[in-house]
Amino acid sequence: MRLTRMLSLVALCLVALSLHAQCGVERWTIKTGTDSQASSINLGSYISTTIYNMRSSTAPGTLPPTTRIAPRELNQYQITATLTKYAREGDSDYHLVIQDSSARTMIIEIPSPNCVGAGSPFGPGIANARRQFDARFTATSTFKTTSTPVTIKGIGFWDFLHGQTGVAPNGIEVHPVLNITFGAAVIGTNPSILSAEAPVDPTDDVAYPADMIRDEDGGRVRVFRGGEALAGALFHGGAVVEDPSIHVVFVGNSWNDESKRAILQKARAINRDAGFEGMAKYGVRTFGMRVSSTQIADAGKDLGDLDVQRLLANAVESGRIQHVDENTVYLVALAPDVDASVASSRDWLSYHSEFHPTELPMRYVVVRTGLEPGRVSEAINASVYRALANPAGNGWF
Fold this sequence. Notes:
By secondary structure, this protein is α/β, with parallel strands linked by helices. It has helices at 2-20, 28-32, 51-55, 123-134, 191-194, 257-268, 274-277, 305-318, 373-389, and strands at residues 47-48, 76-88, 94-99, 105-110, 144-158, 172-182, 212-214, 220-224, 245-251, 291-296, 302-304, 328-334, 339-341, 350-355, 362-368.
């Protein structure tokens, strides 16, 4: 009887873990084949191609959230290359880096079958590819290295550039992978050594700052842990938020009028802050910044970054947030009784990133508010300033 109870408890824990597993947000229907165009793709044929050819494609000007981009996203491709790195992302995808003989790389990804809708024509292939990979490797949240020849088949996919390990310069991927086979090992090398489980530095030999960490969908995010907001940060020469406004999103149900008013005052005080005035040299308009707000009460008590993206995306879809201006920075203020993590890290006061619930990028800052008032202001200002001059969160290094 006791053994039966113990086994039941283990089973319940495993169910809970699987239910807690995160799935992605950005262009997720395209990634998993639950969009209306997926059924038109001929999975009985494929186009043989190379990493060089895929990287030579011109990136589209915009990436619609629920519509495929011809021809890459409407075809299945086969590529033979060398698998060099692999990890399991926070959105449950397997993130694999493949490389050709000239050291050109690109990303291929295998979603979790649990994150694929029942109507997806890619479902059986995704489950097959996960089984094939799991039979050879064990993917964890830490990148591991190998040098294993592979041949893969899967659907072309355009991703946003956000600091992913091994990403092609144009953002092209194969996502999802529907079949993966492993070739012979490198001559003179033991295959068991090639697929060793030793972790590696996932930074691709780039010296990123200590406060830049991997996020939950394969990229990187800049966190603020205290100190000078822009210390050691260099303008990256990319996009900036030129005409900013702030929309405060109060997350949690323990907010009252007084506590919300205190956060709004801190947001409005940015207009008078010397640090904000200093953003003018990057092309940011630093006067008359507008501040508005929304509350999302039923958000849970422990959020990951994907949960934050999902809350924002659902608010846009339902019309609670009118996301019509890419210059709006969404300041996600977590109630004191709401905790959050980024790829399991809780060592931060605030962070900033962006994602695309529509074709427009949505720039957002997440800040803890259960701090001393001065620390809350510091955390808000630091990540807002970083978001204004580097909205994607991965360009200052």
